[in-house]
Amino acid sequence: MKQQLEAIRAAARQALEQAATEPDIEALRVRFLGKKGELTGILKQMGGLSAEERPVIGQLANQVRADIEGAIESARAHIKEKALAEKLKAETLDVTMPGKQQILGHKHPLDKVLDEIKEIFLGMGYSVAEGPEVEYDYYNFEALNLPKDHPARDTQDTFYITDNILLRTQTSPVQVRVMEKQKPPIRVIAPGRVYRSDALDATHSPVFHQIEGLVVDKDVTMGDLKGTLEEFAKRLYGEEAVVRFRPHHFPFTEPSAEMDVMCFECGGKGCRLCKGEGWIEILGCGMVHPKVLQNCDIDPEEYSGFAFGMGLERVVMRRYGITDLRLFYENDLRFLHQF
Ligand code: DAH
Fold first, then answer.
1. In percent, how much of the chain has pLDDT > 90?
2. What are 246-276's pLDDT values in tens digits?
3. I want to staple 165 with a disulfide (CB 3.0 to 4.6 A). Which of 10, 161, 245, 336 is the partner?
4. Confidence band of 24 (pLDDT split at 50, 70, 90)
5. What is the 260 CA–ligand 1 centroid distance (Å)?
6. Is 308 in the pocket of ligand 1 (CB under 6 A)?
7. Mean of the pLDDT values across residues 173-196?
8. Closest Cα to atom 5, ligand 1: which residue?
9. Mean pLDDT, to the nearest integer, of 106-123?
10. 294 C-alpha vs ligand 1 centroid, how far in Å?
11. Which of 140, 171, 172 has the most ligand 1 atoms within 8 A of CB, as the residue to mutate?
């Protein structure tokens, strides 16, 4: 029996030394120490021993059990250590490796200049208004004093969706929407996309952007309009910017004007940028037509206002000397990264 016990001890040690996984160890524990295990099997036979032999064998059996238990413990510890070492090795961080460069995007030139323009008007106490791009004929034309057969409608090349729903051709309808909801004093700008049925070329696009402005209050005069827009031009183009106003016609303003800035490339002498004119047209503007105020339930005897509208693409093209408008929409990073 003594030899059997020694044999079990040796076999268990050897097997546990080779055990590589937790289930292996558990299987060995059951095999040697389990209820039907080898050691238990020996102990069951102890009843047949003499009174002298029994304590000796009993003691030895206890030693063998303790030994096997110890071997199991160390086998488990060994597996854990090995796993940890492997994990650490796999997670090694080489701090000398060069980093991966993150490429940062940046604002589109149209957004960059739009933000500047917004900032200028927000600083003058304006807020930003929005309106739908799919618009009713009423807001885009009718309420702005362009009745159904008005010739100025032809110049707008409209995309119609139904007879009275269209893609807005200008941001001016936002004026009407603001005045319907809000009573004076009103000071808003309304930037946004507009649509015209134009073929795409270097200076035309069926989709482009405008920025509308509207001020309505008591005693607003043409002087306020000129002062505001001149200040705007100086903030956008620099203190030395010179502007001029030319009479013009818009159905929704009376009187109406266009504002030019003296060409910042040639200083008014005439060059390629200003096409020899010396001046660059920036926006349309005027005093809000009394009929437009009336259409919005604002009494023209009590209130007056001015409005203006400019094309964002044009402003940005002139700012950066860009000669082809299509570049804005082609998503060519070689172009976009220059701003
Ligand atoms: N909506 C005009 C256009 O698209 C621009 C414009 C001119 C807007 C004069 C105005 C304005 O508010 O007063 O050509």
1. 57
2. 999 999 999 999 999 998 888 899 988 788 9
3. 161
4. confident
5. 14
6. yes
7. 97
8. 309
9. 96
10. 18
11. 172
**Contacts within 8 Å (CB) and 24+ apart, 42-49:** 42/1, 42/4, 42/5, 42/8, 45/1, 46/1, 49/1
Q: Which long-range contacts (CB under 8 A, 24 or more apart) does 59-65 make?
A: 60/2, 60/5, 61/5, 64/5, 64/6, 64/8, 64/9, 64/39, 65/33, 65/39
Mutate which of 167, 177, 308, 314 to test ligand 1's pocket (most atoms within 8 Å of Cβ)?
A: 308
Cα 236 to middle of ligand 1, angstroms: 19
284 Cβ inside 6 Å of ligand 1:
yes
Give the distance (Å) from ligand 1 centre to CA of residue 210: 9
Q: What is the mean pLDDT of the chain?
A: 91
Measured CA to CA, the distance from residue 302 to residue 325 in angstroms comes to: 43
Whole-number Å distance between alpha carbons of 298 and 179: 8
Q: In the predicted model, what is the mean pLDDT of residues 18-40?
A: 85
Task: Tell me, using a 6 A CB cutoff, whether residue 189 lines ligand 1.
Answer: no
Q: What phi, psi does 220 have (nearest 5°)? A: -80, 130
Q: What is the pLDDT of residues 191-234, one digit of tens each?
A: 999 999 999 998 899 999 999 999 999 999 999 999 999 999 99
